[in-house]
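Bumping with the actual sequence this time:
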Amino acid sequence: MRRIATVSIDAGPGPDARREPRAPVSAEIPLRELGQGATQARLVNLSSRGFMAETKALISPGVRVWLTLPDQLRVNALVVWARDGRVGGEFAEPVDPLRVFQAVGIGAR
């Protein structure tokens, strides 16, 4: 007797579940869960719609956070995933990554 099975594994949202590619960036930024004090984080990558950051703070998926980007732009985001000291989020409103890259000296001449 021959059995055939199809298995679908959904690992949930993660760093590869995004609508557009992210560009690498390295910058220390304050990250604040709504209603909480700010904590330091390191911005790892960025697109107009989202980000990934490293932080020691315990932030859960589904939480709203404020980030102050290197160009002093303060943005609101929804944390979509959190794993091993990293968080990934989607901005409430798109941002211009070029402003951030210029603020940290990427692409500026």
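The tokens above came from a reply further down the thread. Confidence is low (pLDDT under 50) at residues 1-15.
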